[in-house]
Write a structure and sequence with these properties.
Length: 104
Amino acid sequence: METVIVIALCLMSAVFAASPFISQKKEWVAAKTNKKIETKKSEKELYLQAIKDVDFEHAEGKLTEKDYHELRDYYKEKAIQTVRAIESLESGEEANKDLKGDRS
């Protein structure tokens, strides 16, 4: 009986000692996610600026219709993908993967 009590106390002590590390991982994941969101927002702004630049170049007559549509569609699709990635990060899907240990 004493052995069971000693083992239970050791397990409780181990859990208590490990608890700061578990909570730190959550903080690290949150900080990592916030950094990813900021990076993606900067990326989105670059794509939106690229669309404006393409529009300007087209208005100046420096791009053919074909090039204009290809470039505009490309940057528009990249901006859409980036917005979806931001929404995914903000909804916590990425953070949940990190907490579970998934690396993709």
